[in-house]
Recover the amino acids of this structure.
C-alpha cells in the first residue's frame, strides 16, 4: 500500500482557514481565491496563499481559466491521511473497549457473561 | 463540516463510577491491566510515565500535563518507542471523564500529528497494522475474562 499521508498534508490541514477551503471545495467542486475571499474576513491574497499551500501538499489542483486560477480538490492524499488516522483511532477504540471490559469485570467477578 | 484531520476523538461508556474509572486510567497497576502490560506513572503535572508492551520489548515515554481528579487527565507521549518525550515528535492525549446515570463517559482526544515527519508516519502505519492489533486483542480477552484471574 502506498502511504503518502505526510507532514505536509497534516500541516496543511491543521489550519482552520485551509480546512474551511477544503470543506468548500468538497461541497462546491471548484472555486477561486476571489470567490472564497468574499466569504472570509481575509484578503484575496491571503486566500491565494492558503490555496497554494494546499496545492503544495497535493490536496488541491489549480487550473488557469482566463485570468483566474480555479481550484479543485485532489482527494488522494486526503484519503491516505484519513486512513492513517483511522488506524490510530481504531487503536483507541480497542483500548477503550478493553477499559470498559476491565471495569465491568469488577461487577461480575468470574462470570462469562456476554449479555449487555 | 469536516472534522479536524490532525485530531482523533473517541469515547466510550464505561459501566463504573467516575472515581473507579479515574483509578483505572491513572494508577500504574491498573493501566497495566488494560492499556499495556507494563506501566509506570507519577501522577502529577510534569510527572513522567512509561507504557510498555513486553512482547515487543519496548516502552513509550510520557509526561503528565494535567491531573485533575476525577475528570481530567492528560499526558504527552513520544511518537516513537524508547525515545524521551522531549527528544522527538509527540502527541497530546487528553482523557475527560463525565459521570452519567449508566456509569462514566470516557472521552479521549489525541492531537499533534501535524508535527510528525513523513518517515514516522510510514513506520507507525506498518507497526499499527501488524503488531498492535493482536496485542490489544490479548488485553481485551484478559480483561473480558474477569481481570485478575
Amino acid at each position: 500500500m502506498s502511504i503518502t499521508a505526510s507532514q505536509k498534508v497534516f500541516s496543511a490541514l491543521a489550519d482552520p482557514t485551509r480546512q474551511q477551503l477544503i470543506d468548500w471545495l468538497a461541497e462546491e467542486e471548484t472555486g477561486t481565491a476571489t470567490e472564497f475571499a468574499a466569504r472570509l474576513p481575509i484578503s484575496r491574497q491571503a486566500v491565494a496563499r492558503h490555496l497554494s499551500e494546499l496545492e503544495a501538499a497535493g490536496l488541491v489542483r489549480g487550473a488557469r481559466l482566463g485570468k483566474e486560477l480555479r481550484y479543485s480538490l485532489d482527494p488522494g492524499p486526503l484519503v491516505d491521511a484519513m486512513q492513517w488516522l483511522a488506524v490510530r483511532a481504531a487503536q483507541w477504540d480497542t483500548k477503550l473497549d478493553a477499559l470498559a471490559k476491565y471495569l465491568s469485570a469488577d461487577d461480575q467477578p468470574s462470570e462469562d457473561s456476554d449479555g449487555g | 463540516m469536516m472534522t479536524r484531520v490532525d485530531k482523533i476523538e473517541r469515547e466510550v461508556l464505561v459501566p463504573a463510577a467516575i472515581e473507579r474509572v479515574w483509578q483505572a486510567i491513572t494508577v500504574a497497576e491498573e493501566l497495566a491491566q488494560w492499556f499495556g502490560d507494563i506501566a509506570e506513572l507519577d501522577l502529577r503535572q510534569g510527572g513522567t510515565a512509561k507504557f510498555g508492551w513486553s512482547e515487543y520489548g519496548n516502552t513509550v515515554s510520557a509526561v503528565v500535563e494535567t491531573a485533575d481528579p476525577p475528570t481530567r487527565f492528560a499526558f504527552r507521549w513520544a511518537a516513537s518507542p524508547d525515545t524521551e518525550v522531549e527528544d522527538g515528535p509527540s502527541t497530546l492525549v487528553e482523557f475527560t471523564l463525565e459521570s452519567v446515570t449508566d456509569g462514566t463517559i470516557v472521552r479521549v482526544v489525541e492531537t499533534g500529528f501535524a508535527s510528525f515527519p513523513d518517515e514516522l508516519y510510514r513506520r507507525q502505519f506498518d507497526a499499527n497494522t501488524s503488531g498492535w492489533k493482536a496485542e490489544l486483542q490479548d488485553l481485551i480477552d484478559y480483561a473480558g475474562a474477569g481481570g485478575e484471574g
